[in-house]
Write a structure and sequence with these properties.
mainly alpha, ArsR-like_HTH (chains A, B), homodimer, WH-like_DNA-bd_sf (chains A, B), Helix-turn-helix transcriptional regulator (chains A, B)
DNA sequence: CTGATACTTAACCATGTGGTTTAGTATAGA
DNA sequence: TCTATACTAAACCACATGGTTAAGTATCAG
């Protein structure tokens, strides 16, 4: 039943797992619509390589392409991203919960400084993620208000 | 500079792109700690196959394994998930923004019926996506923008 | 018509992924 | 000590991925 969603998630996460593709999406996020060659220009790989990435993104439903004359412009679509977000959100509090227990010995690592946290979009989302956002980065942080799910 | 993060995202998204691995994570979310064989039991694949999945998850930093005697238990860690969330969040409104412009002709597609909308997490997100959420699943069957490759 | 531009297809290659079976190591228990 | 249990390692396979080069096809500009 939830199978279609499942496959959509597969493709979405798989599509997002490549830095080139994430960069492509990011550019489309800023420019809203770019031709294939404009899109490909900044990357050090061949056009066909970019084409394949665009195929993957199209396949995942993350972008659409429309041809006008001989040029093809790409634009973002959002639904799959949403699904991905939903999946992550669904388990978010479980993770934060576990994180608290693990925090002790996982808190080393090589993290770069808080990277801009650029958008206000964060504000909406933060309502859902604050509970762990705090504990995860600023560890220490006593038990977050997040509810204890199991047991 | 942001390179480490980048690779971490690669691995995180890649790890999440497999349904078996998502299911493993989900179970760990509910049980908090399970042995390798307990973890593997419900799945129709061989133990070594599960082992490989666990390798991938470990590699992505999504779980940790600790050995006690001859059994190995797995637990979740949360940071990579957070990063993934952050990445998605960062672009969330760009997408919804673009989606609004696209809504018109993207509203076909083959999406399954509104599937349970399981968590309240959705409510927060909806603030960002509502505007298109409605129009997006109208499903009207116009011209499928899905690529017409040949000819 | 000619040629450049914009994209697509095809063929190929190296590597990675998800799975198998088979064999191994290590610990718990009789 | 012997054996079952719990996990790991190795070798192999089919197929997907990310890249290449080279050869199309289609459209716009002269």
């Amino acid at each position: 039943m939830v199978k279609y969603q499942d496959e959509a998630l597969d493709r979405t996460f798989a599509a997002l797992s490549d830095p080139t593709r994430r960069a492509l999406l990011a550019r489309l996020g800023e420019q809203r619509s770019l031709s294939v060659s404009e899109l490909a220009a900044p990357f050090p790989v061949s056009l066909p390589a970019i084409m394949k990435h665009l195929d993957v993104l199209t396949d995942a439903g993350l972008i659409v392409r429309e041809k006008t004359g001989r040029t093809v412009v790409c634009r973002l679509t959002a639904r799959p991203m949403e699904q991905a977000m939903n999946w992550l959100n669904r388990y978010a509090q479980f993770w934060s919960d576990n994180l608290d227990r693990l925090a002790a010995f996982v808190e080393e690592e090589t993290w770069p400084p808080p990277p801009s946290t650029p958008l206000n979009a964060r504000q909406q989302i933060d309502q859902a993620s604050r509970s762990r956002a705090g504990s995860a980065r600023g560890r220490k942080k006593s038990s977050p208000p997040g509810r204890k799910p199991s047991s």
